Amino acid sequence: MPRSVMQLILLAPEMFNDPKLRSYFTVYTDCLVEKVTEEIGYEAVLSDISYSIKSFENVGFKVKFSGYSDKLFIFARIFLKLMVKVRETGFEELTVKLAVEKAIKSHKNANVEVDQRTANNRLIYLLENVFHANLVIKALESFDYHEF
Predict the structure, then answer these.
(1) Which of 13, 19, 105, 121 has the maximum number of C-beta atoms within 10 A of its C-beta?
(2) The domain containing residue 14 runs over which residues?
């Protein structure tokens, strides 16, 4: 059976214009991956299927599945049903809090990355990333769990 890759690109460009919405997106994707791993992660490992959710060129996000053809569509369907279920039921508060902490640490690492790369004269290209990271950190530090 050949291995296959399936990618779903969901467009939501307004999500990337505002640091607050971008921070919500980061938290949402981390929580969703955690929920999928909790619900069907073991079965995915047994079926040799991998999955990821990432931003896609600042216009949306990409859900990528890879695995053997006979199981891939079944897994993708279950994954999408979980996305719909999460929309109706939400995430556990602890999962959201941990995702917020992880996102803050991740964006703070952007500053460390700039410090490490300045020896290579790349500072001018990284300043925009640091500025953006600082805006997202501010949004994450004032994260509203009830609004999310």
Answers:
(1) 19
(2) 3-141
